Amino acid sequence: MTATETAHPPAFWLRDNCPCGACRDPRNGQKLFQITDLPDDLAVGAVRDGVPAADGGPGREVLWEPDGHRSVYPDAWLAAHAPGAALGPPRAGDGRTEADKDLWAAADLRGRIPEAGWGAYIGDRRVRMRTLDSVARLGFVLLRGVPPRDRMVLDVARTFGFVRETNYGELFEVRVEADPNNLAFTGARITPHTDNPYRDPVPTLQLLHCLSNEARGGDSGLVDGFHAAALLREEDPDAFAVLTRVPVEFAFADARTELRAHRPLIDVDPLGRIREIRFNNRSIGTLHQTAAVVEEFYAAYRTFARLLLRPGLQLDFRLAPGDCVVFDNTRLLHARTAFAESGARHLQGAYADLDGLLSTLSVLRRGGDRS
Ligand code: OGA
Ligand code: ZN
Ligand code: ZN
CA 298, CA 206: separation in Å to the nearest integer? Predict the structure, then answer.
């Protein structure tokens, strides 16, 4: 960092980040003032370098006009955070966009599907870190040898976060039902989709734990929706733009429930980076837009849908009893082939959220001990 960059960070930014005990509660780091408390004519007064800072290193002391407040900013903190004159390479994002992911097609994972044995995952902190990191970076992990017990999927979710209960319950049974309220509960093929796009917010993680899989068929598939969306952006930027722009109505209804959400198929962050995919041919509703928008939406939707089915994108595998796949439901699409309804196939599914998983991963990384 050059002297000119640190010389005058914008005054309100600098003051808003004052680390002193009057500005932040030393017990929790939370801010104690309102942004409106700062004087309109706030200005940096005297500045002195080489002053001992709270982190034990050298710091920069700032005396503020007109209120005489005193701040000491650790040099290391300023070097890491001070706004420069120009916007450099975009900082890594919030951990949720394509900027922080390893995008993949099936061949990229050949022979190296991210997986961990249940015993090692539970017993070894480094394995836990690697496992959760796979969910963060690749969008999924396959846990093997998870005891194929009723409700065990909830215990799996609780190793890294919190179960998201829904109208389907704490967990949902994926098996053939007599009067299914969802095609998942039949033997039908299910093409790549994200779950519950009719919810806002969507469950950001899904777990599917296999208790039995003796049916003919019923193989699993995963597609990296971020990769597919990035391909769409390359091959047909106009279609990509349409899918980021047009709110799509998703809906689910049964006797007790009526859910609805209006969101685009591809969500981007304010910098245009892919952040969330919603795609589900079963629950997409009626589009209410002008005829022109409807035309361009359907052209783009069909292009994206074909792309998602392109050979080579989907990773195919088969769940065996004791396997539990944990995946990012804002990024990966999941699928299964049709299966004979006479055969025994039983999965238990649950939803959870990425914020909890990423928090657990961060705490593990700082050496904490959530086991
Ligand atoms: C689901 C689903 C996949 C499977 O229940 O949402 O997609 O393998 N199931 O049965
Ligand atoms: Zn202060
Ligand atoms: Zn599903």
Answer: 28
- Which tokens is 66 given? 């007109």
Instruction: Please state, rounded to an integer, the average pLDDT across all residues of the chain.
Output: 94
Angstrom distance (rounded) from CA 294 to CA 335: 27
Residue carrying the six token digits 């689910």? 252
The CA distance from 50 to 167, in Å, is: 59
Q: What is the pLDDT of residues 199-247, one digit of tens each?
A: 999 999 999 999 999 999 999 999 999 999 999 999 999 999 999 999 9
User: What are the structural domains, with CATH classification, of the chain?
Assistant: 3-91 (3.30.2020.30), 98-365 (3.60.130.10)
Indicate the Cα dihedral angle 131, 134, 135, 140, nearest 10°: -100
Residue 334, ligand 1, Cβ within 6 A: yes
What's the DSSP call for residue 280? -
Q: To test the ligand 1 pocket, which listed residue (174, 278, 333) has its Cβ within 8 A of the most ligand atoms? A: 174
Q: What is the pLDDT of residues 25-36, one digit of tens each?
A: 999 999 999 999
Strand partners, 62: 47, 71
